[in-house]
Amino acid sequence: MIINDVTKTIAARRSVRKYSPRPLRAEELETVLECGLLAPTGSNRQRWFVAAVQDPALLEEVGVLQKKVMLSMPGLPASMTEKMNAPDFSPTFGAPVLLIVCKQDGGHDIDACLLGENMVLAAESLGLGTCVLGSVTMALGNEEGKAFLRKLGVPEGYSVAFGISLGEPAEAPAATPREKKYIII
Ligand SMILES: Cc1cc2nc3c(=O)[nH]c(=O)nc-3n(C[C@H](O)[C@H](O)[C@H](O)COP(=O)(O)O)c2cc1C
Question: Is 3.40.109.10 the CATH number for 5-40+47-173?
Fold first, then answer.
């Protein structure tokens, strides 16, 4: 692989599941969000919306919604039940920011995905950690979740594609393996 700043950043990214509580500086958050908006979209329609949640009370609310949905799932493994009921449970693993990436109804999932990956890599380049969170899609996918989105100011007609935790990492996870068999040249 050719090594440069971009490929180094891509190779260094890991899903981070432990964070320092340090709030993000405004310029860090703005840089991550603006890099998201630089992603390509079909016909440049930009059918996406991102809510950056930092208020601890709102993060807690996401946690409550997540617990409600997860704990009502039939056959949830005991280990998950234990995690959800832990006193220190946090929907962002303690990260001070949750990015809620939404897509417009009828829009492409891929637009939101590309925006998300831009933000993840921008965060890595700033020394910040992230984890893409499908759990947030589940937590905010019902009527209560939609009401929460409206409360944040996400317009009608958008639903959650995924969440991303964002903050200063408090762990340095090892790389997870990748299979070269999934590419041909
Ligand atoms: C669509 C999607 C949903 C994910 N949802 C979760 C999640 O809910 N919780 C979690 O801890 N990690 C989640 N992840 C992170 C993956 O587990 C992680 O990317 C994968 O194990 C590879 O590890 P790496 O990101 O460190 O390379 C998700 C990743 C993607 C792309």
Answer: yes
Q: Which two tokens stand for residue 138?
A: 């589940």
Query: How is the beta sheet containing 48-53 ordered, strand by strand?
Result: 48-53, 97-104, 158-167, 129-133
Write the single-letter amino acid at 138.
M
**pLDDT tens-digit readout, 65-93:** 999 999 999 999 999 999 999 999 999 99
Tens-digit pLDDT profile for residues 85-121: 999 999 999 999 999 999 999 988 999 999 999 999 9
How far is Cα of residue 133 from the mean position of the Cα atoms in its chain? 5
Dist. CA 135 → ligand 1 center (Å): 10
For the whole model, what pTM was predicted? 0.97
Whether residue 139 has pLDDT greater than 90: yes
Q: Domain residue spans in the chain?
A: 5-40+47-173
143: nearest Cα among 154, 155, 159, 132: 159
Site to probe by mutation for ligand 1, drawn from 16, 132, 138, 165 as the one with most ligand atoms within 8 Å of Cβ, is: 132
Helix axes 143-152 and 56-71, enclosed angle (nearest 10): 170
